[in-house]
Amino acid sequence: MRSRTAPWVLLAPFLVVFIGTMIVPIFMAIGYSFTSVTRSGLLGEGGLTNSFAWFDNYVAALTNANFVASIGRMILFGIVQVTVMIVAATVLALLLESASAKWPGFFRATYFLPYGIPGVIATILWSFLYIPGLSPIVDVLGAVGINIDFLGPNMVLWSIANIVTWTYTGYNMLIIIAQLKSIPGELYEAAKLDGASSLRVARSIQLPLIRPALMLTVIFSIIGTLQLFAEPRLLQTMSAGITSEYTPNMSAYAFAFQYNDIGMAAAQSVIIAVAAFLLSAIALGVSNWMEKRG
Amino acid sequence: MKSYTRRAALAATGAAGMGAALAACAPPNPGNVNAEAAIPPSDGPVTVSYWAWLKDLQKVADVFNASQDRITVETTWIPGGNSGGYAKILSAVAAGGGPDIAQVELRQVPEFALAGAIVDLTRYGFAEQADAYDPGALAQVKVGDSYWAVPQDTGPVATFYNREVLEDELGLKPPATWDEFRETAAAVSEAGKNLISLDPSDGSHPIAWAMQSGAVWFRPEGDGWIIDMTDDASIRMAEFWDGILADKIIGTGYGSYTTPWYAAAGDGTVLASISGSWSDALNETVPGGSGKWAVAPMPRWDDGYASGGHGGSSAAVLSTSKHPVEALEFLTWMCTDPAGIDAMIEFSGIGWSPAKDYIGEIRQQPSEFFSGQNYNEEIIVPMAEGQNLDWTWAPMMQRAQAIIGDGMTKAVSGEVPLVDMFANSQKEIVKIMRDMGLDAEEAR
């Protein structure tokens, strides 16, 4: 009996905080998402009614052009950015784990370093490389006749993608390297005896065997993409291209804390969570299906 | 027994979560304090707390604290409104706590009133002291017959421009009318520079232009709101800016006083900002700008008003305050007494003074940065006196401003001209207000 209660006692400090700040707010958000507040009179002097709104907030969210556009924007962002980042991470991992790599430890640390810089700081650093008049990159490109506005309405999404890629490629690379290290040496020996080239080893041994790690990084990246917030929110003050409802999370933030419409904000948050869950499930399903077929 | 323990713990966890969820199904709201009886003044000493993002506000409060021994004001710094300050204030009020006073931007005051977060100051005799305030400031905290906050500073719009480049180098003058603005902007654009640069997603500029032109977008009438964004005053302004945007003679990549703007202003490639009077302090940080800049009136129409309002904030008494009388007493001192105004200017660097006939002592002297011009008395005073006093802020300004900002962004890219955008926005705003339960209709 005593040995059974001990873990709970030890877990209690964690559980109290976890339940209080994670689980309860999730249920509250789901609850809020089904309510709506209406006020009457010029400024609500006529009183206020809380009502159960069924799925009204969800319908309103999904018919809100800005919110739908923000989801579309994140899907486009995800397709391009996640692909580029995962390919880059995989290539870096394979290169660092190849037999001919020089100073792999040094380069592993270097590539991983950006992950140690918080997203907010990274955005501020990069913004100085984006702003015309401050950025040496813009100056050099301008000198050779390429006029590019990194913060313009059409470019800024990719400028954000660049920051995110820069931050997370090294992190994903490390996950893949960990998986590569677990490949038994006999497989490489066998391949060598059969006269396989490095490319052939990568294609036939390494890539199939790191599939679980790749899947993990893809799912993390999809979830991360849907939750994009800090980078665009910071760049908003410098770029005319970022509106207050630019990403789904910025939209939920705007409705909660700027428009004071908690019901709508909660509904949007639930939609973001469900979408992240569905996209991850689809990614997992596709991967399993390919594995069975292959 | 063993499995029972675990199951019980899990069940308890689940039940606690579900219970909390059900109990909390309705978002918290502060109720309707303005329907309750007024809180009488306290007998003993009182401590009044004040949350604001003005810097060094405690030093202002200390001047007041030293002047009497009944009320002690304690200030706490919070992030600026939309950077987290409002979230903090509204959450605190919803939880039944929070300070006695909070800083709220002028345009947000009706939104806070609608959220039930602030006290109708008319119930505490504010109307009797209204004469002590600048009418342009007062008009912005009034909805119908009620005053909802004490104006703390305002932002009458003026033109802040690089005199050296605009006048000496290009031989141009700051535009006095909007027609001249168009010619000047074209000439500056010809020279490879921008007269001004706007962040189209910032809706505050079109709102200030509409105010100046004489529009009243949101008009309280009885228990309802009339939304009128397509009157002649709004349409002439929309047509004018559609022309400017079509000609591409101003910058639209970034707004005034952002990092890229400072870089361009320092280089002399952006020459001006048409914005609230608080721009002066920001403008003074343009690198190498001292002695080269100057201030001119906002360009204007033949009729309409001299200037519009841009920014500025108020101090609102929150609905959870236990000491509204004492809070108002302090705010009256801070926002009308010359000692309060001078302290706010010196320590907190506020925008334009909310007091009637007192602009602050150090603002009566010439400025070295602005070419030795006594710009406050010469330029800003007439701008502050020439405000559109009929203008009322709507109780969903945050959202309305985002809609206007989105509309401007689409106008810049040429998708929807401003003339149509205002008509569309009017419909959208009416719909949103009705969804909130308010009685709103489009003007006929």
List the helices and strands and how they pair.
The complex is a heterodimer of chains A (294) and B (444).
Chain A: H1 2-32, E1 35-39, E2 48-52, H2 56-63, H3 65-97, H4 104-112, H5 119-130, H6 136-143, H7 156-181, H8 185-193, H9 198-209, H10 211-226, H11 230-235, H12 248-258, H13 262-293
Antiparallel strand pairs in A: 1-2
Helix pairs in contact in A: 1-13, 2-13, 3-7, 3-10, 4-7, 5-7, 7-10, 10-13, 12-13
Chain B: H1 2-23, E1 46-52, H2 57-67, E2 71-77, H3 85-94, E3 101-105, H4 109-114, H5 135-138, E4 142-143, E5 146-147, E6 150-162, H6 163-169, H7 178-190, H8 204-213, E7 218-221, E8 224-227, H9 232-247, H10 259-267, E9 272-276, H11 279-283, E10 293-297, E11 309-317, H12 324-336, H13 338-348, H14 375-385, H15 397-412, H16 418-435, E12 439-442
Parallel strand pairs in B: 1-2, 1-3, 8-12
Antiparallel strand pairs in B: 3-11, 4-5, 6-9, 6-10, 6-11, 7-8
Helix pairs in contact in B: 2-13, 12-13, 15-16
Work out the largest interface and the residue count of each chain.
Answer: A-B, 61 and 71 residues
Gap between N and C termini of chain A: 50 Å
Give the oligomeric state. Answer: heterodimer
SSE string of chain A:
HEEHHHHHHHHHHHH
Could you give the order of strands across the largest sheet of chain A? 1-2
Structural class of chain B: alpha/beta
The CATH architecture of chain A comes to Orthogonal Bundle
Stretches with pLDDT under 50, minimum 5 residues of chain B: 15-24
Which second-level CATH architecture of the largest domain in chain B applies?
3-Layer(aba) Sandwich
Give the mean pLDDT of chain A: 88
Strand content of chain A: under 5%
Query: Briefly, what CATH class of the largest domain in chain B?
Result: Alpha Beta
N-to-C SSE series of chain B?
Answer: HEHEHEHHEEEHHHEEHHEHEEHHHHHE
Low-pLDDT windows of residues of chain A: none
